Amino acid sequence: MTAERIDGALEGRELATSAHSRDRAMHGGDRAVHRSDRAVLAWGRWYTRDLPDDLAADRLAELESDVFEERTAAGDAAGVGRSIVGRAIRGVPADLAWRVARLRGVSLTAPKGTFPLALPALAHVATAMLLAWGVLIVVRVGAGMLDGSWAGAWDLVAAGVVGLGLALIGSALTIVPEARWLGALWLAVASYVLLRFGMYTLIATSTTLSAFYSSALVEAILINRVLSAAGVLFFVSMAAWWLPSAKALWAARPERPHRSPIIDPEGTIA
């Protein structure tokens, strides 16, 4: 590549960078002004995330139109952003009621054999309870280690930390619609670790639970195993419920056409 071509490329890059900087300077204020609009639309995308595409698109279009009309009517009046956000906050109960009604309509037309409507909502409640259980275990173990009263095995400490980590990863994955089935599988493993070994961890930190375990050994073991199995089966069932949203993972991808390199007259590859 000749020196003239290098200089021309550098000059073009500088011009593009300068134009991009001017564009950011011109539109930065608009982005700051409409930050409230983006927050309201983000809320709309969140509570329509599980709905069919046509229902979600219609709801978001209605919300965008409502926000646009309010901002247009207000013009440059101060506080219009706060007014838009305030209306959105006051409308949260109505938005959630609308979501439940649409989910109910979808469930009524779903094929036979699918899970009832309450299970997806119950999965989020179960996830929150599992996280709270994991935090309780880690906090109790940490407090016992700090004051020197911890007398349990170190593998129970590791089980609590690992189980809570798995639960955090699984709960984060369930936020992403395409990865919810995978998050449910992570939560299934986390529920086994936290429920199976978490009980023994709390027994080592509580005299009341230790006395119950000693006086009713068979019942305590039975309760532990039933809860562990129930947690695993529940989250595996939710993975099966959410799995259709990930069917694109197995979809055939179009092959990329082979493109031969282009050689310019000077012998360089474009």
Structure, described:
With 270 residues, the chain is an all-alpha fold. It folds into 2 domains: 10-108, no CATH class; 118-247, no CATH class. The protein is built from 10 helices and no strands. It has helices spanning 3-33, 35-47, 53-74, 80-90, 92-108, 118-147, 154-173, 180-205, 207-215, 217-242. Helix 2 runs antiparallel to helix 3, helix 6 (118-147) runs antiparallel to helix 7 and helix 9 packs across helix 10 (217-242). The longest helix has 31 residues, at 3-33. The chain is elongated, with a radius of gyration of 28 Å. The N and C termini lie close together (11 Å). The model is unreliable at 1-10, 13-33 and 256-261 (pLDDT under 50).
Concise summary:
With about 270 residues, the protein is mainly alpha-helical.
On the 0-100 scale, what is the average pLDDT? 75
- General form: elongated
Q: Which structural class is indicated by helix and strand composition?
A: mainly alpha
- In the residues, how many domains can be counted? 2
Number of helices: 10
Number of strands: 0
N-to-C order of helices and strands: HHHHHHHHHH
Q: Which runs of at least 5 residues are low in confidence (pLDDT < 50)?
A: 1-10, 13-33, 256-261
Helicity, in percent?
A: over 70%
Q: Give the end-to-end Cα distance, rounded to a whole number of Å.
A: 11 Å
Cα-based radius of gyration, to the nearest Å: 28 Å
